[in-house]
Amino acid sequence: MKENNRNHMTLQFAAKSENESFARVTVAAFVSQLDPTMEEITDLKTVVSEAVTNSIIHGYEENPEGIVTISASIEEDTVTLVIEDKGRGIEDLELAKQPLYTSKPELERSGMGFTIMENFMDEFDVASEVGGGTSIRMKKRIVSKKALYN
Amino acid sequence: MNLHMETARHRETLIVRLSGELDHHTADLVRMRMDEEIGREGCRNLLLSLKSLQFMDSSGLGVILGRYKLIKQKGGKMVVSDVNPPVFRLLEMSGLFKIMSIYENESSALSELEVAL
Description:
Helix content of chain A: 25-40%
CATH architecture of chain B: 2-Layer Sandwich
Helix content of chain B: 40-55%
Number of strands of chain B: 5
Number of domains of chain B: 1
Distance between the termini of chain B: 37 Å
CATH topology of chain B: Transcription Regulator spoIIAA
Distance between the termini of chain A: 28 Å
Number of helices of chain B: 4
Order of helices and strands of chain A: EHHEEHHEEH
Oligomer: heterodimer
Largest sheet of chain A: 5 strands, antiparallel
CATH class of chain A: Alpha Beta
Structural class of chain B: alpha/beta
Shape of chain B: globular
CATH architecture of chain A: 2-Layer Sandwich
C-alpha cells in the first residue's frame, strides 16, 4: 500500500503576475505538512516564483489568457514540483540555462532564474518544445525541523 | 500590493527602504519610483536598505542590477544594507557582491559612502 504515503495537488491559474505570490504561498502551504525549515520554505517559494515568472514573461509574453499549471506531490520526505505552460517554448535550452543569460534584456531580467532553480533544488529538469510549451520538473528532499531537533 | 517602499535623502545619497515581497509583479512599480527619485537633482548615490524585505527572487536581482547601472552612469555609488540570509544567498549567487558593497546597517553604509566621496 505504498501509494497511501503519497499526497498530491494540482493548481491552475491565469498567467497574470498577481498570481506569482499566490502560487508560491500555495505550494509552501501544501509542503508545510513535512514541517520544513524556514530555509527550505524560502527555497521552494523562490523556485516556484522563478518558474511561474518564466511562464508568464517568456512562455506567454504576458498574455493573461495563458494558463500555468503546478503539480506538487509529496512522497516520503521528498517534494516533486512540475510547473508547466503551453506557451512559446524555449529555442535553445543550453543557452537559456547559462547564468546571467536573458532573452529579454530590455525588461531588466537578471538571467538568474534557471541558475537559482538548479541551486535550490536537488533535481532539476526542463523539457521544452518550440510552440508547444515548457515543463520544469524539480525535486527536493525536506530534511525538516524534526530531524534537526532530534 | 504586497510591497512597500519608503525613501529618504541623506546629503547626496538616496536611501530606499523596501519591505514586503519584491517579485516580477511588484518590480515594475519599484523600478519606476526609484528611477524617479534617482533622476532628481543632487542625487548621486543609492543606499538600498532591505531590512524588512520578506521575499525576493531573480526579478528583484534585475531591479538591483538595473539601478546599479543607472547610478554608475551618474558617477555615483550604490550599496546595500541590512540584508537577510535568503536575500544574501541570491546576491552572492548572482555575483552582485563583486560590484556592490554590503553593510550591516544604514548608518555604517552612509558613513562609508561619505568617506568615499
